[in-house]
Amino acid sequence: MRETNLLMNEMARPILSLEKVHKIYRTKASLFGRSGMEVVALSNISFTIERGDIFGLVGESGSGKTTAGRLMVKLEEASSGKIYLDDVEINALRGRALKGFRRQVQMIFQDPYQSLNPQLSVLDTISEPLTVHGIGDGESRQELVRQAMKAAGLSPAEDYLHRYPHQLSGGQRQRVAIARAMVLKPQLVVADEPTSMLDASISAQIFNILLEMRKELGVTLVFITHSLAAARYLCNRLAVVYRGNLMEMGPADTVIQNPCHPYTQALIDALPKFGDCRDVKPYGTLLRVDSEAREVTGCPFYPRCRKAHRIKCSLEIPPLREIGDGHFVACFYATPGSRGEARSDDACFYGT
Amino acid sequence: MALLEVQDLSIGYRTKKGYLQAVDGLSFVLEEGTSLGFVGESGCGKTTVGMALMGLLPPNGSVSKGRIVFEGRDLLKMGEEEMRRIRWRKIAMIFQAAMNALNPVKRVDKQIVEAILTHDSQKDEEEAMKEVEGLFQLVGVPVERMRDYPHQYSGGMKQRAIIAMALACKPRLIIADEPTTALDVIVQDQILAETRNLQREFGISIIFISHDIAIVAEVCHDIGIMYAGQLVEYGPRDKVFESPGHPYTRALLASYPTLTGDKKRLTPIPGETPNLIHPPEGCRFCDRCPGAKGQCKKESPEWIEISPGHRSLCHGSP
Amino acid sequence: MGKIGLTLLILFALMAVCSFIPPWIDPMYQPMTGVDPEISQSTGPSLRHWLGTDFMGRDILSQLLAGARVAFMVGVSAAFMSIFLGTAIGMFAGYTGGVTDTLLMRLADMIMVMPTLLVVLILSSLFGQLNIWTIVLIIALFRWPGVSRVIRAQTLSLKHRPFIEAAKVAGASHLRIVFRHIMPNVLPLSFLYMTFRVTSAIIIEAALAFLGFGDPGTVSWGMMLQWVWKTGHMFKAPYWLLPPGICISLITLSFYMLGRAMDEVLDPRLRKEEEAG
């Protein structure tokens, strides 16, 4: 059941909001004549996340989803635009205020083999945030660490406290990373593809741990993923990103069962499925071969879109507009897709 | 006569900590023109099987028993020279992260031509180039990109080039080990569809290795589920999904989310995979199995036939 | 290979420790000042003097043992100081980046191309005989660039690893990141390089002593070789010529072997676990 409903009724103020966030990367001019190129990672993105949400940011590689996550935790700065955490603009934060911010926002990284310091034991790794912020002393810190480990499924804590990363499996390492992120009891945690390097059954464990922790701590989660199926399982709201642009956004079930943007529909068509999938009809919004247009001034999805209008879509950028209750789409020709009757005995499963 | 028949294959690695039993007693039959998928999580032995079929085990790996009978001949009894002739001409392999297998300083068409000429010295370069053109059209890479270098290709195009290379010598069997793992969902879908088409058109047999059941389900007629070095379930795709016989298969299926309908809580599999240096005596899955009985720990399970062609390695009833 | 190196090193260490024994037994065994009242020239091995005596009648074996002590002192101190400097500068340059990094590396380049030996020779001809510790200091000051480049490269590669970013997100200050996260991952490499530095420090000191620019108050193997040469005993007294020469070669070899063996130990820890698949 949705615990978020209770939380959402209590506090109506968004915890995180992005306003016209733009991020450009410049590649340096190389010796062999290639002049510095500009890559637009995020193009005027705006959205808000409510307290207690599990917000999914779904996209393929190059979509900018990871960049968005990094901007949210201030690992990088936006080229323009504003990001607000609890109404405080984070770009201007310095010194003590910045440290206070760091206590409220944490991140879980994608690669469990690289996100833990190989020279630090599990205890040291998880207590690092506590030490940095001067919370408690040796004993009380250990207690907090144990609590975090228990919540992350690393029980009994004794078995793991003094181990080093190379003695742990991928799933265990990721749980240490989760414990580390949660030990400060932050307001917001950004999880950047936390399971893409793990097997399916381990991924399932991690998903459940994240759900549990969210229930216990009331933390808001941003779940960055390439898997719509995983996003549907975890998130109550999600946004689909393509080449730095928001294509569709709304309640997770609505977007997935009633996708309106041709790209979202193409993503759903492309998911590998197994089981009884005879009734699943494809949306067929993808061109077989990309059309020749490369430098696009209009909609970024234009070159691959079967439904696109040659003139309007290639010249104008479609704005994000609301077509339903909290459901937004950036397309001139959004047609509410539908999967037909929702099968309640859903026998069709999707790979992640 | 089946194209490939593997009988009781066991493979191990010499490691510092001891002898690791990576594959234990694997047996299956692959008929010509069909595709078989091996599914399992990391450490189950599926990649080892692929490498053993090609005779490309690393120096510390060796086959301890069994036979690999291809076109009626036991590959394990062949010398290196004979094996080289079979490799690529009769059996081709697409490795994991194969996109990185392209030589970055050579044009792509030249690389494929080289592969063709190495294995068929009777052709000349012009003929080979024409074949490469045909292959590119087949795999869906625009012919005008033939003369580019690998770094100018996108991930999907590189993978298609690798598939073209594997097809270049018109092999009878292709072994594909996680060929789409590094690709985005949409490109992956296109490549899987193209693989299905190629398979139907040319009757190539495929062994598809992946950790993702859904991917294998898209391409393969038959599925083999592997756990801890053993084949635990085997059968036609539909039957395995409709009525999975082995508890591991059932547990694995339950860890995949659905997209529609009620959201069921995903049930992960508790515990960890067993140590393959000292494998347990009885069933290797019993520590994590919800239906484990006393018998399971002590006795190794036997194959139970669930329906014709569909079997499961388990003591319990399906 | 490491075992051989380690064994040899232990042998030399024993020698160094034993260097205190002969003078304690009898003052005539003092390497610098001990004079056998009955001998005043170079003699071959005998019961009283196991390796014979040098041109002044001083016991060669005690000189050899004292030389071992000096070799370790010079070698280890010079190596330690140059590694300390090199690691600190390398980490600082790698982590800070930008102009600081460029300036420091240019400085490193300039120093690296200067021939250490030549500089010391020039300095000592300007300032007269140099004290052994001055020599150690100069060796350290000229030998840090090599290490710093390697440490800088390692720092650069570590800087962008997710666990460093995790530390940043947790709120760690730059100082904390450098000392708590980067340094422990860089130290194994430092130690590895230290073993190589020891060899070069010993050789430089030996060369200096041999050429006559060493500290005249210190008995080192190089100094012994200088005495052999200067007093014209090169072909007359193999019992005097060979021991120091062999010792220099062997100690350098053993440190090198140790370093190479350590190389293997370091690698697997840094590599991630390979799945058997």
Fold and architecture overview:
The complex is a heterotrimer of chains A (352), B (318) and C (277). Chain A has 352 residues and is of the alpha/beta class. Chain A folds into 2 domains: 2-240, P-loop containing nucleotide triphosphate hydrolases (Rossmann fold), CATH 3.40.50; 258-329, no CATH class. Chain A is built from 12 helices and 14 strands. In chain A, strand 4 (80-85) and strand 5 (88-89) form a beta hairpin. Chain A is globular, with a radius of gyration of 21 Å. The model of chain A is unreliable at 341-345 (pLDDT under 50). Chain B has helices spanning 46-54, 80-86, 108-119, 125-139, 155-167, 185-202, 213-219, 237-242, 247-253, 294-298, and strands at 4-15, 18-30, 35-39, 61-70, 73-74, 91-94, 173-177, 205-210, 222-227, 230-236, 303-307, 310-313. In chain B, the strands form 2 sheets. In chain B, strands 6-7-8-3-9-10-12-11 form an 8-stranded mixed beta sheet, with helices on both faces. Chain B has a 4-stranded antiparallel beta sheet with strand order 2-1-4-5, with helices on one face. Chain B starts with a strand and ends in a 5-residue tail after the last strand. Chain C has 277 residues and is an all-alpha fold. Chain C starts with a helix and ends in a 7-residue tail after the last helix. In chain C, helix 3 packs antiparallel against helix 8 (174-211) and helix 7 (162-170) crosses helix 8 (174-211). The chains are: A alpha/beta (352), B alpha/beta (318), C mainly alpha (277). Chain A binds chain B through residues 60-61, 169-170, 199-205, 207-208, 226-230, 232-233, 256-257, 266-276, 286, 289, 339, 342-346, 348-352, and chain B through 41-42, 140, 142, 155, 184-186, 188-190, 192, 211-215, 217-218, 237, 241-242, 251-253, 255-263, 265-269, 272.
Summarize the structure.
Chain B has about 325 residues and is of the alpha/beta class.
Radius of gyration of chain B: 21 Å
Silhouette of chain B:
globular
Compute the number of strand runs of chain C.
0
β-strand amount of chain C: under 5%
What coarse outline of chain C follows from CA principal-axis ratios? elongated
SS class of chain C = mainly alpha
Order of helices and strands of chain C: HHHHHHHHHH
Count of discrete alpha- or pi-helical segments spanning 4 or more residues of chain B:
10
**DSSP summary: helix tally of chain C:** 10
